[in-house]
Amino acid sequence: MIKVEHLTKKFGNTVILDDLSFEVKEGEIIGIIGSSGSGKSTLLRCLNLLEKPQNGYLTIDNEKFNLANLQEKDTLRLRKKMSMVFQSFNLFNKKTALENVTEGLIIVQRMEKKAATEKAIKYLSQVGMKDYAQFYPAHLSGGQKQRVAIARALALEPEIILFDEPTSALDPELVNEVLKVIREISQTHDFTMFLVSHEMEFIKSISDRVMFLHNGSILEFANPENIFTNSRHDRIRSFLSQMERE
After folding, report:
1. What total of structural domains would you count in the chain?
2. Are 18 and 10 in contact (CB under 8 A)?
3. Where is the ABC transporter domain (predicted)?
4. pTM of the full predicted structure?
């Protein structure tokens, strides 16, 4: 069980996350939707410790962490439990696809280069990028870059993977190749996954539960059917109607 309690994040006087509390079962796939500025990406960044909240607790593996006041050793331990896939890929331009995947294994997990290379090749193969292992990012399409980024996240073998708008920087014709990889991961691995996306049909079909954020608060957190078909909230119905028109 993963438990978040009273997570609050402000930028200046602006409240981005307003006292969020929720629980997620291990292995669940959680879709996160809502308008731009509702706090979706900030939630992921707080969970991954890229942003420090003013308040909030995270319980994972029966151990409770104060996210607003972490010791460095606890920060490192938590980060080893999570990987994040960013909308802008965040690859090292001067490293090959293979080196981008081995970097974290060697530096963070202190793995020997040979073992790291073997593991990287394994996960590049899973996302269909083994043949591009020696390519640099400049010679890869957006979809290929994102698949390398996904392989990098998988190779760390975390408990939780956070996907922050993984297709938003892609040309429309490349979106499906990345969504296909994420779907395959969900079917072949038991990671807990948090997925922020504007691809509503994908969120509806892949998620065990869907969280709708509005003005930094959880308006509804339920199974996809309740969110997409039977939501009792006018705000959610209006949002989904607008997304259908776009």
Report:
1. 1
2. no
3. 2-240
4. 0.92
Rg (the chain; Cα; Å):
18
Show the domain range for 77.
2-244
Residue in the block written with tokens 């963070």? 108
**C-alpha–C-alpha distance, residues 158 and 177, integer Å:** 23
More confident residue, 246 or 149: 149
Read off the CATH number of the domain in which 27 is found: 3.40.50.300
Cβ neighbours of 1 (radius 10 Å) = 12
pLDDT-derived band of residue 153, with 50, 70 and 90 as boundaries?
very high
Give me the amino acid identity at 30. Answer: I
For residue 5, give the H/E element and its range. Answer: strand 2-11
Buried b (16+ CB within 10 A) or exposed e, 128-154: bbbebbebbbeebebbbbbbbbbbbbb
Of residues 127, 137, 128, the one with CA closest to residue 99: 137
Percent of the chain with pLDDT over 70: 100
User: Which DSSP helix (H) or strand (E) runs through 118?
Assistant: helix 113-126
